[in-house]
Amino acid sequence: MAMEYSEKVMEHFAHPHNVGVIEDADGVGEVGNAKCGDIMKMFLKVDDGIITDVKFQTFGCASAIATSSIATDMIKGQPISEALKLTNQAVVEALDGLPAVKVHCSVLAEQAIKAAIADYYKRQGIDNDLSRCADCEGCCGHDHGAEEED
Amino acid sequence: MFVYADNAATTAVSETAINAMTKALRETYGNPSSLHQKGREASAALRQARETMAKYLGAESREIYFTGCGTESDNWALRYAAKAGAAKGKKHIISTPIEHHAILHTLEDLEKDGFEVTLLPVYDNGIVRVEDLKNAIREDTCLVSVMYANNEIGSIQPIAEIGKVCRERGVLFHTDAVQAAGHLPINVVEQNIDMLSLSGHKFHAPKGVGALYCRRGIPIQPFIYGGAQERGKRAGTEALPSIIAMAAAFAESCEHMEENMARVSKMRDRLIAGLKQIPFSRLTGDETNRLPGMVSFCFEGIEGESLLLRLDMAGICASSGSACTSGSLDPSHVLLAIGLPHEIAHGSLRLSLCEYNTEEEVDYILQQVPQVVRTLREMSPVWARMMEQYPNPYKD
Asked: Where do the DSSP E strands lie in B14-140?
């Protein structure tokens, strides 16, 4: 069955924002695995608790690239505390919905951000309890409470 | 530029088929089972269509049964052979892991009924070896079903040799020729084929019509019960306009087969040679023994759905066997069966050409695909990791 993506998804897929690498990143997080067909890697630059820059690299389908693009937009310039509140539902909503089988991509985006922040905390020597879906890394398609959209 | 390069999925309906079909819709509306003149007219048109199909398969017209699609033909052939086998206590079937789901899912269902299925290895070129078949045939083997040519990688199977072995061993041989019919020469007698499935829309007929060839003497039983259509074997009023269109399209494809094969395979080979220039790419399927229009590749470091949609944005219609295009987490069973790891199978691209494609379109594809592959690689962490090990071909 042909996948129906929203215009917003196609726009971010065609012209993704924040693609690239931050060489001197303060935090780097990577989730997913190539076997399942999706990997997201996020790079953060943090200044005084604020995410001043964010870049991503993604291997995956159109929705994986689009969710990476919009999720990085959503946390750029935000305090870490706000970025941690970003949920996959918010990412799905910002994209005007994702096909049900693609909701796991938004979970990956949320996880990638949390992984990058966890890495930042680790480098800063700050304790944290950022939990990730360590077993499946989003690969299993856990929707983590997200509403499935058509 | 717009390029339709997904002819293995379906083809554009030919003018010949459209004309034959619209004429039939307007004029030949009678029910072939009716006794009056409109019925007789329809019945004659049906007979003619059957003769045409038979002629180009090397069959007799009474050996042709019209169906709703290739999948129905496959289901019918397998279910019949299984039932006939079970009646003799033979419940072993041989097939391949790269069959279409119409075969594989039917086999899975038969396994639930106690049938044992052996899938022959297809090796990295996607082709079965006749020796393996000889070794796999047992006393209780009731059917061998091997596709004529594969729909994802284009590999052509040694059908005549397989047919010969099956005939010698007294085992029914069915082939799913959905991708081959109208594109490759078929002769059911010379190739010792007992049953063959085909589908009209793969050779420029409309969707919703197919056929099953079943050799005379095989007492095939109905799959769909009802009226006396198709000599009592396939009930339901015949889709006459579609059947007429399919016969017209099949005749046209078969009459021009030699020239089409030459022209299409020339474009295919130019595309293959050009796409091979892309670093970390690989052709899937056999180098030469492949469908005339089939160009199938894997590009490392990228994912097929992204590739497909970017090409779509550039006006090129193609296909991929990646997980994301299948709606599951696993990439195509065909690519896995020829030994590709998941990570590489995710980056698959299938371009399938037909005689309607042009050299200019090939030029355009050759210009677009390398660019799109490069763009996606430049945002891929998998590619970035590969480039820590190898010199980056995109660095000036």
From this structure: 64-67, 92-95, 116-119
What percent of chain B is modeled with pLDDT above 90? 96
Mutate: best of A39, A61, A148, partner B, most B CBs <10 A = A61
Q: What's the one-letter identity of residue A23?
A: E
Task: Report the residue from A14, A19, A102 with minimal CB separation from B379.
Answer: A19
Distance from C-alpha of B69 to C-alpha of B95, rounded to nearest angstrom: 20
Could you report the per-residue pLDDT of A53-78, keeping only the tens digit for each?
999 999 999 999 999 999 999 999 99
Residue B137 to residues A65, B106, B120, B338, Cα–Cα distance (Å): 49, 20, 11, 22
Per the annotation, the verdict on A36 as an active-site residue is yes
Whether the CB-CB separation of A52 and A77 falls below 8 Å is answered with yes
CA B80 to mean position of chain CA atoms: 21
Could you tell me which residues of chain A have a Cβ less than 8 Å from any Cβ in chain B? 1, 3, 10, 13-14, 16, 19-21, 30, 34-41, 56-65, 101-102, 139-141
For residue B193, what pLDDT is reported? 98
Cα B299 from Cα B289, distance rounded (Å): 21
The pLDDT score that the predictor gives to residue A150 is 38
Residue B374 phi/psi, 5-degree rounding, is -65, -45
Q: Does residue B45 contact residue B188 with C-beta atoms inside 8 Å?
A: no
Q: What is the dihedral of CA B218, B219, B224, B229, to 10 degrees?
A: 90
Which three-class secondary structure state does DSSP give residue B387?
A: helix
Q: DSSP E strands: which ranges in chain A?
A: 27-33, 38-47, 50-59
Residue B178 confidence class, pLDDT cut points 50, 70, 90? very high
Ramachandran bin of B131, using left for φ above 0, alpha for ψ from -120 to 50, beta for the remaining angles: alpha
Return the ∠ at Cα B340 (arms to B337 and B341), rounded to 5°. Answer: 115
Q: How far is CA A111 from CA A81, A86, A134, B36, B371, in A?
A: 15, 10, 10, 72, 31
Q: Are B114 and B138 in contact (CB under 8 A)?
A: no
For residue B344, CA distances in Å to A46, B99, B318, B321, B341 come to 35, 21, 18, 11, 6
The two tokens of residue A40 are: 């997201």
| Tokens of residue A34, six digits | 């190539």
Q: How far is CA B165 from the centre of its chain?
A: 23
The answer for residues whose C-beta is within 8 angstroms of residue B280's C-beta and 6 or more apart is B299, B300, B301, B386, B393
C-beta atoms surrounding B285 within 10 Å: 28
Q: Which residues of B156-170 are buried (b: 16+ CB within 10 A; e: fewer)?
A: bbbbeebbebbeeee
* CA–CA dist B161, B146 (Å, integer): 12
Q: What is the pLDDT of residues A86-141, one digit of tens each?
A: 999 999 999 999 998 889 889 999 999 999 999 999 999 988 777 554 444 444 44
- Distance (Å, rounded) from C-alpha B163 to C-alpha B215? 13
